[in-house]
């Protein structure tokens, strides 16, 4: 209707994923993602940042329904896909694509690059035969894998890391998805090729008006790519807001600690630096109350008893910290 506000492309509500692990000491429940909520608009990039073990990659795979959630909701363009059986989910797969962190692990070493790029076109009924091959060759040319006919015939081990990551991007973009989850797509690449890969992702995103969940531990990369940043710690989002605002005026102690760890030529800060103690706790036994309190130098007695909720500290800027509430 005229004047109506369009619905977000993606709505995530109270999403949880618990893994049950067994061992000599018995079973334990790993709370990889533990109550995450956010929305994502068309054409918007949300970057998930945090230490290893914070739940970023698990959340990305939940959104794509590569993992079945333990609880919560995932709504894509008005359709609740949380519990859809695989048969009904398959038509939605075309709209949801993953760019993996390790491209070598995502390609079959026994098949050519061209065969593996043609396959999703055929599976989803978009093209087959010579038409599918022509579409793949045109895209290989576009992403800089030239001569395209030669790269089409190569096996994955005959490509460099940067070339294979370009092929992984091409495989995802061939289907022109609405939502892409890029799971640290440049972390295994040399610095010399990272900028080219990021620019390639931006080009596709703008041309296709895609939404993107960009997972990274590199805050500088997050700032380059993201419209908004969500900072994750031990399965929860602790700060969420516009990228420039979160990085320029971080409000959560964890975000401030991540920024303080970045080497700088100038040590002038708008906010005091925070140094955390120890390592991230075991997600199978998270601390009570605020999960950061055992490591946080600003922790108060209340932090060990009560769990802070995300509250809006500024326009679109949400923080889960009792200090901000006050």
UniProtKB/TrEMBL annotation:
Keywords in alphabetical order: ATP-binding, Nucleotide-binding, Transport
Keyword ATP-binding carried by entry: yes
Keyword Nucleotide-binding attributed: yes
Pfam families linked: ABC_tran (PF00005), oligo_HPY (PF08352)
GO molecular function terms attached to this record: ATP binding
InterPro entries xref list: AAA+_ATPase, ABC_transp_ATP-bind, ABC_transporter-like_ATP-bd, ABC_transporter-like_CS, Oligopep_ABC_C, P-loop_NTPase
Domain ABC transporter: 10-259
The organism's place on the tree of life at top rank: Archaea
UniProt xrefs under SUPFAM superfamilies: P-loop containing nucleoside triphosphate hydrolases (SSF52540)
Transmembrane segments: none
PANTHER family: D,D-DIPEPTIDE TRANSPORT ATP-BINDING PROTEIN DDPF-RELATED (PTHR43776:SF7), TRANSPORT ATP-BINDING PROTEIN (PTHR43776)
Family recorded in the similarity comment: Belongs to the ABC transporter superfamily.
NCBIfam families in UniProt: oligo_HPY
Protein name: ABC transporter ATP-binding protein
Organism annotation: Pyrodictium abyssi
